[in-house]
Design brief:
Keywords: Glycosidase, Hydrolase. GO terms for molecular function: purine nucleosidase activity. Helix 3 (85-88) links the parallel strand 3 (67-70) and strand 4. The protein has helices spanning 18-29, 47-60, 85-88, 111-118, 132-140, 142-146, 170-174, 176-185, 194-197, 204-213, 219-236, 246-255, 302-313; strands at 8-14, 33-40, 67-70, 105-107, 124-127, 150-154, 189-192, 201-202, 243-244, 260-265, 268-269, 279-280, 294-300. It is α/β, with parallel strands linked by helices. It is 38% helix and 18% strand. The protein contains 13 helices and 13 strands. Helix 1 runs parallel beside helix 2 (47-60) and helix 10 (204-213) runs antiparallel to helix 11 (219-236). The structure holds beta-D-ribofuranose (BDR) and calcium ion.
Length: 319
Amino acid sequence: MIRGGVLVKIILFADPGIDDSLAIMYAILHPEIELLAVVTSYGNVSVSDSTKNAAYLLHLANHPEIPVIVGASHPFTEEPQVFYPGIHGEDGLGPYTPPDDFSASIYPFEKVFEIIEQHIDEVVIVDVGRQTSLGIAFNLKPELMKKVQDIYLMGGAFQVPGNVTSLAEANFYGDPNATNIVLNYAKQVHITPLNVTNRAILSREVAVYIYRLTANPYKELLRVITQYYANYYEKVVPGIKGAPIHDVFTLYYLLNKDKTYTIERDVNVVIANESKGLSVADLRATYDKPTKKHSIALQFDYRHFIEDFISIMIKDVTK
Ligand code: BDR
Ligand code: CA
């Protein structure tokens, strides 16, 4: 899609969170990505924690000028928010708490429209958190948002078990109204559901290997957050060795479509009742022709994925 020496300009919507943090590191280190901004949100942690974590990761990489834009503080529904300290840590970075004072460029939500307008022909939006902020963007500026060529979402579980309930994946469950707004209004959505991301495992061995080889400013943080993350998954998922880095996979997918099997379908998400957050698509070979042609990733080459992750995470921050 990019290639030929041109950087992909990404706005990353995220709720860091450990795998979100790894995705921010991957974006910062990747020579083919220009990170235009991070839009934070409630989700794995509160919006104030996710904002602080995103800003801290940019500060560590010596990129305090990259805007961190404060997004949604809660979903459209009235339900109380649930955070996930067992998976992501009390503040979102496992056992680590960032200091209170460091340089950062924090902006209110309107900033995202300014950045999209500036880069309308090339910007790609990647949302690896609850979709509330992106849904709000579509609500506030539908005409502008419909011009965004490509939107990537980490979310959903298509005819495989969910993670937050037996049916639903956490991001699509968090605010299904918002997810449906994005799915209904966006030009083209590329979805990386649990079908693939659950298999995008970072093992302890690979995490240690990266730790030993890397000299970049994320080295120490990488060690503690990947250990914390693996501890949780190994406790709750029998036989797993390590933990799935869902949000990293979405960025990998964007840059490596040829290594992934995808199908095109219309998709929507169940809003209420006991099936809340269930992602629905007609996966039959004889499905009705989709109107939207959103794509769903279903298979990938694990070896290529993990080798790519290693090669990016051992880079110095030189961009
Ligand atoms: C998704 O939910 C969050 O916990 C992760 O950061 C990821 O975006 C996986 O279901
Ligand atoms: Ca996330």
